[in-house]
Specification:
Radius of gyration: 15 Å
Number of helices: 7
CATH architecture: 3-Layer(aba) Sandwich
CATH superfamily: Response regulator
Helix content: 25-40%
């Protein structure tokens, strides 16, 4: 339990640090906060060894959605690395593109109508799927952002991650909210 509390504190502090611009004037946007979460999700997930062509290949976070979201994510994640893999943000247009070029795919709410298409197209690919759409984890997605008042929380479908060959850390699993039934 103590480790879970430390993990929660670490995620909160990191989200605040990653989203702080130093000026003291601009609060973080919701997508800057979600970018901080995406960074930490990548830290707490293991991909199969053959996923990366070499030890310093980029870890690609694909974005399916509005270009303004991509800009927020790029700004927040610039210069960050996960296990010696520099983070790269890329706009994604098709499930095939996602399956062949990214490690994490973030599907924005604006693309909710394409969720089923992407989940079907990524079946068997080692791509961590993350969204902010209703019932995402219940429909086979791996991590879903949910709003609880003014807070951003997340749910995890660990079985979907295992089916894709991904291993989600027990620390991250312990921080997840339970999906509503």
């Amino acid at each position: 339990m103590r480790h879970a509390a430390i993990g929660v504190l670490g995620l909160v502090v990191a989200a605040l640090l990653l989203s702080y611009d130093g000026s003291g004037q601009t609060p973080a946007t919701p997508y800057q906060l979600k970018a901080a979460f995406l960074f930490h999700f990548a830290e707490f997930v293991e991909w199969p060894p053959q996923t990366f062509t070499d030890p310093s290949s980029p870890l690609v976070i694909g974005i399916l959605g509005e270009s303004s979201v991509r800009e927020d994510l790029e700004r927040t994640l610039r210069g960050k690395t996960v296990r010696n893999h520099p983070l790269e943000v890329k706009e994604i247009r098709t499930p095939v593109d996602a399956a062949h070029t990214c490690h994490v795919l973030f599907i924005t709410a604006a693309e909710r109508k394409r969720v089923a298409e992407f989940l079907a197209g990524l079946r068997g690919a080692s791509v961590l799927t993350v969204s902010e759409t209703e019932r995402f984890t219940e429909n086979g997605g791996m991590i879903n952002f949910v709003s609880e008042g003014t807070k951003i929380r997340f749910q995890i479908n660990d079985q979907a991650a295992k089916d894709a060959g991904l291993k989600v850390s027990s620390k991250l699993l312990s921080l997840a909210s339970r999906p509503a039934h």
